[in-house]
Amino acid sequence: MSTVTLKHVYKIYENSDKKVAANAMPAVSDFCMEIQDKEFIVFVGPSGCGKSTTLRMIAGLEDITDGEIWIDDKLVNDIHPKDRDIAMVFQNYALYPHMTVYDNMAFSLKLRKTPDVKRDKNGEPVLDKDGKQIPIMRKYTKAEIDEKVRHAAKILAIDEYLERKPKALSGGQRQRVALGRTIVRNPKVFLLDEPLSNLDAKLRATMRSEIIKLHEKLGATFVYVTHDQVEAMTMGTRIVVMKSGFVQQIGAPQELYDHPINTFVAGFIGTPQMNFFEGHITPDGKLRFANNQLITLSESVMAEFDKEKIGSGLDVIMGIRPGDIKVVDEECDNSITARVEVIEALGNETIIYANLDLDAEAGIEKNATSITVSAKLKKNPERRSKVIFGIDEEAIHIFDKATEISIRK
Ligand code: ADP
Ligand code: MG
Predict the structure, then answer these.
(1) Helices (H), ranges, 299-344
(2) Which ligand is nearest to the CA of 47?
(3) Minimal CA–CA distance to 167: which of 101, 259, 76, 111?
(4) φ/ψ of residue 158, rounded to 5
(5) From ligand 2's centre to the CA of 215, what distance in Å?
(6) Are 73 and 138 found together in one domain?
(7) pLDDT reported for residue 21
(8) Confidence (pTM)
(9) Structure confidence at residue 15 (pLDDT)
């Protein structure tokens, strides 16, 4: 079993610029989470939001300014990294260039010790004067190292390359060796910090599924850092979305997609990005947005939103995902008319960038009335033509404009 628990964890870098240190923002603030055994957790967020810092604190490579980190039932705040039973893989996996793949993987085991009991030359335990076995730490034997290296190589399908040097390997194979170095140690928890960022798009997709399979095979707990929301959505059993050192939301991929807690999560998860419009909603379900568009939400949809928050009317940010808008032939309930600015025909779907302000100057710049729609179409509309969009009212997200927090109950 290997759980990781973070309780109100903070990190303030001591060496951050002295002039701003007095009011410097913590790199990580009040991080609370229980990572369950065998979970695949992804930390995602823009660059600088504190993902690596959190991972490094779990690994013990960075001191914790405040709070507690537990691995299983052990408080590890003051436990040395090498005693935490954790393995970390970085974006820049430095393999030793002069060593073979085999030696790169065997190297960390040669430096490590394993618990055993004192034995005589026949391998039989030696007993102390009370007749008890004597616990010791000893080096791994050659045979033990060999078994672990070959086992890891097999799991990663690099057993053919054990005698090669890293320079004779592709990027993906090298990344596998870097993973292999951690697998041989059989750690409780794997920490991976953007391990695929240096690979090209195709290889990244392959390695993504390799790592998912690896997680299944090893049955260990994984914590994976990425700035790429697609990676997060496809790999994580749960995702932690971070911004400026604060956890925004923790949940399963679909949960974050369907019920984002605020505009940041809503905009970060999902591609193309959710459309946002400033608007106003009244208790009878009239939603005005994007200057003078109006749709009326049904009672059943209104029941999903917090009536108390809406009060006698509330300034809101309305959100709708590009895939929740259809191109329709005629005006109908909850349809809006727009003018097409740009079409991206991707084959299986078409992305339409349009403007709800029919009199606006032509252009593709994003403004208060621009809207993105992704739809499967038999025939793509012409540029500058008028199109009618039907909005799926069930899929509308509403955020309080003042707090940017969802008013969904
Ligand atoms: P991420 O991995 O999400 O891109 P980091 O955890 O690396 O973000 O960084 C979080 C914040 O802490 C950033 O503002 C970064 O500049 C700052 N930071 C990271 N490492 C150090 C350090 N060693 N000293 C001072 N500030 C740091
Ligand atoms: Mg980082």
Answers:
(1) 299-302, 307-310
(2) 1
(3) 101
(4) -120, 20
(5) 21
(6) no
(7) 52
(8) 0.89
(9) 67
Cα of 60 to ligand 1 centre, how many Å? 15
Check if 84 has its Cβ closer than 6 Å to any atom of ligand 1.
no
113-156: pLDDT as tens digits: 888 999 999 989 999 999 999 999 999 999 999 999 999 898 88
Ligand 1 in contact with 195 (CB < 6 A)?
Answer: no
Nearest 10 degrees: Cα torsion 14, 43, 204, 46 = -60
The verdict on 154 and 204 lying in the same domain is no
Separation of 227 CA from ligand 2 center, angstroms? 8
Q: Are residues 68 and 212 in the same domain?
A: yes
The reply to whether 181 falls in a domain is: no
Number of domains in the chain: 3
CA distance 175 to 199: 9
Which strand (E) or helix (H) includes residue 209? helix 201-218
Give the closest ligand to the alpha carbon of residue 56. 1
- 408 by Cβ neighbours in 10 Å (0-12 / 13-18 / 19+) ranks as middle
Tokens, residue 231: 């990676």
Q: Are 381 and 351 in contact (CB under 8 A)?
A: no
Do 28 and 6 lie in one domain? The reply is yes
As a whole number of angstroms, the distance between CA 378 and CA 82 comes to: 59
| Ligand 2: centre distance to CA 223 (Å) | 13
Structural domain of residue 280, as residue ranges? Answer: 275-400
285 and 387 share one domain? yes
CB 143 within 8 A of CB 167: no
Which pLDDT score is estimated for 16?
58
Going by alpha carbons, the residue nearest to atom 1 of ligand 1 is 48
**Cross-strand partners of 262:** 405
Q: Which pLDDT score is estimated for 364? A: 67
Q: Which two tokens stand for residue 308?
A: 């108390």
Low-confidence ranges of the chain (pLDDT < 50): none
Q: List the residue whose alpha carbon is closest to atom 2 of ligand 1.
A: 52
Q: Which of 20, 53, 242 is the pocket-test mutation for ligand 1 (most atoms within 8 Å of CB)?
A: 53
| Nearest partner of 390 among 323, 301, 299, judged by Cα | 323
Structure tokens given for 217: 């095979």
Within a 13 Å sphere around the CA of 397, how many CA atoms are in the beta-carbon half? 27
The CB of 56 under 6 Å from ligand 1? The reply is no
